[in-house]
Design goal:
The complex is a heterodimer of chains A (307) and B (227). Chain A is built from eight helices and 17 strands. Chain A has 307 residues and is α+β, with helices and mostly antiparallel strands. Chain A has a seven-stranded antiparallel β-sheet, covered by helices on one side. In chain A, a hairpin with a 2-residue loop joins strand 11 (230-238) and strand 12. The chains are: A alpha+beta (307), B alpha/beta (227).
Chain lengths: 307, 227
């Protein structure tokens, strides 16, 4: 089943409350996905710096002195903030690839990379996952979250959503992809790193691969309608907004709401009921096979994919 | 008028209260406040009562309805009015996917749009939508009437039997074995009565009728090679 939530703020005065609002939306979706939960938040950026969110099952030993260990590799100071099993590393811009290689050697998993993006995800009930990382206290411009009811692969941290697809890009998925095994083999041959047997990770890797080959995110999402077989409602987070696409059959539910203050996404209307001004929001279902985008930089768009 | 605050009473207790109403109850008017998109609101009713939900509902509202009238003052989630037997459901906003699926009787009115698979496998229910409907609507529709004042999405009436479809606007595409049909006098009369019952002011002559071409009823020997 799985539950998805997303919130894109237009009104800056709501930014300090982003984490709190997203947490409430996520917890409402618990009965759609009690196995694991995750949230991606786009927060403040620091000029000349970029971020990586990392995870370890043994955070005490893994994160002990990690900032100092990495500073030589990164070619500058590394700032680390540990939150439970995750740590956010603030590193010099442009050092992501080198730091990633060092982290791989240390056996530390990378959850996300980007200037503003932080991803937190763990096994457990959404309320426990949100509390563990104190998501409710986080501020930001936009974010997406996911509650997982596993169908295609094991209930693990790495199988939890959101999946990082590129710098400041991430993906959550409700549905199941049926051609993920053949696509995984193809993408691995193309040199794309895929860690798990999870179907959504293949979806995320597919978008990464398309964009590495020159497609925009919008083009990659549009071609996903041809190349991915199965059921999906995807919500993708980008540096300055989010996008939504549903497969042409559109079995997996999706509701959107828009006011002057925000654009919100929920698998069900229930997830949206406590948002401010929801009574007067424009509420609608996104159309199948149509790619929607909201961005802080551009006007909203919706592109229907020709059959 | 009996008012139930769903946020205080809880779903099971509320539905139990409604189920407890008999054929000759004198508590015929009910109002449900704070529905907040909850699932299965006013499901399985079987008494001549009128229930008004003040807000939007989640999955399966008014499913399996008999006799009752359920008004939804908001939008309705997936599977609303699923397997409705009789009575009436009026949705002031939009309806999500598979509205009135497998419905055997009664009337469902949508003042906004209905999403995909509206009236899928309908077996006698009448559905009147003031706006548009989504793709794969009335798939395998067996009997009953689907009236659409706006446009219909892809594959309308795919593999349908004897259900009738009246569409005022454009049909994006017809499903397998669904075809345009002649609008005869009896159809205009039927359509007028459905529109009147739904309280929608529209001219029946502006609609086009669609239904089964009946080519899938019998096996075509030319297809024997496919098996």
């Amino acid at each position: 089943m799985c539950g998805i939530v997303g919130l894109f703020l237009k009104d800056k005065s709501l930014e300090p409350r982003l984490g709190e609002m997203l947490t409430a939306m996520l917890i409402t979706m618990t009965d759609r996905g009690p196995d694991s939960a995750g949230i991606a938040i786009y927060g403040a950026e620091t000029k000349g710096r970029t971020k990586m969110t990392v995870q370890s099952d043994n955070p005490e030993s893994a994160f002990d002195g990690l900032d100092k260990k990495l500073s030589d590799t990164a070619g500058g100071s590394v700032k680390m903030a540990v939150k439970s099993t995750h740590a956010v590393l603030e590193i010099p811009a442009g050092s992501t690839a080198k730091v990633r290689a060092a982290l791989d050697e240390l056996g530390i998993r990378v959850m996300s990379r980007g200037d503003g993006l932080e991803i937190y995800k763990e096994v457990g009930l959404p309320k426990d996952v949100a509390a563990r990382f104190d998501i409710a206290q986080m501020s930001g411009t936009h974010g997406i979250g996911h509650t997982r009811m596993a169908t295609e692969s094991a209930v693990t941290t790495m199988g939890a959503h959101p999946f990082n697809t590129g710098n400041d890009q991430c993906l959550v998925h409700n549905g199941s992809l049926s051609n993920h095994n053949s696509l995984r083999r193809k993408l691995r041959r193309e040199g794309i790193h895929i860690e798990t047997e999870n179907d959504t990770e293949v979806g995320a890797a597919y978008l990464t691969w398309r964009m590495q080959n020159g497609a925009t995110l919008g083009q990659a999402l549009t071609s996903s309608l041809d190349d991915l077989d199965g059921f999906f409602t995807f919500v993708v987070g980008t540096k300055d907004g989010f996008g939504v696409v549903r497969d042409p059959i559109a079995c997996k539910p999706a509701v959107m709401a828009e006011t002057d203050q925000y654009v919100a996404f929920g698998s069900e209307y229930r997830a949206l009921v406590d948002l401010p001004g929801i009574e007067n929001a424009r509420v609608w279902e996104p159309e199948p096979a149509t790619v929607y985008f909201w961005s802080h930089n551009d006007t909203p768009s919706a592109t229907e994919k020709a059959a | 008028m009996q008012t139930i605050d769903l946020s205080e009473t809880g779903l099971r207790a509320m539905n139990k209260l409604l189920h407890a109403q008999s054929e000759d109850t004198n508590q015929t008017a009910w109002e449900i406040i704070n529905p907040k998109g909850a699932h299965a609101i006013a499901c399985g009713l079987n008494a001549p009562i009128e229930v008004t939900v003040k807000g939007s509902t989640g999955y399966y509202c008014a499913g399996m309805n008999q006799q009752a009238t359920v008004n939804i003052h908001g939008s309705a989630g997936p599977g609303t009015g699923e397997n409705i037997m009789s009575g009436k459901i009026v949705i002031e906003g939009d309806a999500s996917q598979y509205l009135g699926a497998t419905g055997h009787g009664g009337l469902i009115v949508v003042k906004g749009n209905a999403s995909s698979r509206c009236g899928i496998s309908m077996k006698g229910v009448n559905i009147v939508v003031q706006g548009n409907i989504g793709h794969m609507s009335a798939f395998m529709g067996q009997s009953g009437n689907l009236v659409v004042c706006g446009d219909a999405g892809d594959a309308l009436g795919d593999s349908c039997y004897e259900a009738r479809f009246f569409v005022r606007g454009k049909v994006k595409s017809l499903g397998a074995d669904c075809e345009k049909k002649e609008m005869r006098k009896e159809h205009l009369t039927l359509l007028k009565s459905l529109l009147d019952e739904a309280g929608i002011d529209a001219d029946p002559t502006e609609f086009t009728r669609y239904g089964s071409a009946r080519n899938l009823y019998n096996f075509d020997v030319d297809n024997a090679g496919a098996y």
